[in-house]
Description:
The protein is of the alpha/beta class. The chain has helices at about 10-15, 15-25, 30-45, 55-70, 95-105, 125-135, 145-160, 180-185, 200-210, 235-245, 270-280, 305-310, 315, 320-335, 340-345, 345-350, 355-365, 405-415, 440-460; strands at about 80, 85, 115, 120, 140-145, 165, 190-195, 215-220, 250-255, 280-285, 295-300, 375-385, 395-400, 420, 425, 430. The protein folds into three domains: about 5-70, no CATH class; about 80-85 and about 345-455, Aspartate Aminotransferase, domain 1 (Alpha-Beta Complex), CATH 3.90.1150; about 95-345, Aspartate Aminotransferase, domain 2 (3-Layer(aba) Sandwich). The chain has a seven-stranded mixed sheet, sandwiched between helices. A five-stranded mixed sheet has the order 2-12-13-16-15. Strand 12 (about 375-385) and strand 13 (about 395-400) form a beta hairpin. Helix 3 (about 30-45) crosses helix 4 (about 55-70) and helix 6 (about 125-135) runs parallel beside helix 14 (about 320-335). Bound molecules: pyridoxal-5'-phosphate. Pyridoxal-5'-phosphate binds next to helix 7 and strand 9.
Amino acid sequence: MNELSGLPSVEHLLQTEIAALLVESYGRPLTLAAIRNTLADLRLHHAYQKTLPDNHDILSLAHKELMGLTQPTLLPVINASGVVLHTNLGRAPLSQAALRALESIAGSYCTLEYNLDEGKRGERTQHTESLLCRLTGAEAALVVNNNAAAVLLALTALARRKRVVISRTQLVEIGGGFRVPDVMKQSGAKLVEIGTTNRVHPADYEEALQEQNAIVLHAHRSNFRITGFTSEPELTELAAIARNHNTILVDDLGSGALLDTARFGLGHEPMVQESLAAGADLVCFSGDKLLGGPQAGIILGRAEPLSKLRHHPLARALRPDKLCLAALTATLLHYLKDEAIWQVPVWQMIAAKPEQLKERVERWKDRLQGLPSPYAILPGLSTVGGGSLPGETLPTFLLALSVPQSNRFLSYLRQATPPIIARLENDQVILDPRTVLPEQDELLMDLLQQTLQTYQSHNLKSLPT
Ligand SMILES: *Cc1c(COP(=O)(O)O)cnc(C)c1O
């Protein structure tokens, strides 16, 4: 009890020069709370300590706490995982033009809902929407917060208290809690499952549409493939069936490519233009998957059903913000100017040729010469991810590091600033240049060098001799 009273008071500590600096950086209330907390901690653990901490010790502990409290947890990382659309890492990195658009809009007032010609209220999403129509030939377009919202809005506005016919081949869970059947339930629509897990026939749709008040949902399987004894009608055939029954076909494309992925040695990801041409009444897809833009849900199609979505009360709750629209418009302009392949990072990564990646990874290896860990260049595979092109891969070249306790080394890489996300393969630490932004190469090599050195010195200390 006696010793505890040896700790200085909060008031006393606050009068020191160090505390003044802390108050300047972190504000008085937070600094005060951190000092109080530090003192409480010290009192709690005091019995175990031999000497009383001095003012300086106490304030550095408080400083540590303040740094922890104010350190953002949403941080940029270097993605060396080789997964182009990594949902956990924020999917698509934006183009330079999209970044400039964000910068110019974010800190200023803007024409979000303002018509400059007439000097009165304008439509929030109108600029983006006319671009989308031009690019895809759609009659009308609507942008919402993400694709899950797009599907929810479409089903709520068109099929609430009605039936939605969907094939069992498409009742998928996308990840992150998006299950097609659950979204359908949420919309108030009644789910009508047809066909079997591997096969569905036009007659199944015909039969389900005999009853009135049903629409048809077609959903991309996204993250898995069914192979073998399978069958599904073509989208054109589905569209014809829906039309004959005077109803609507909604196509949830998931990723929704505007460019043909087959050009890059991948399988063919269904394209937005194709779905519209096949006769889908509404097509929806994500803004931050293969489009390579910000998180958004894009709905395209015929004007009449789309206006029901636009005027549904839910649309207001799902509307995109000005930053989304600024970045999305800039991204779409790359497609309009036919420069998406070399301006949109996602497409640059997909289009990168194995020879180019080999050159890059050789430069990486050269930079690491002289470090003791054995490192090698190996041929390997990158994936697209983001629920597009399941099972499809792109040939690449990898930097492979053989370090002791490779899993532990991965965690060292994650503690770098910025963190480096790599993967393990056959107990080796693997870094894929495909998903590392070229301007991050130098930084990555510096960090890798430092991390290897730190790791080695820690390991030497801890290894038995
Ligand atoms: C990814 C995906 C979604 C969800 O899209 P978000 O933009 O993440 O909300 C919905 N449907 C399919 C088929 C998908 O692949």
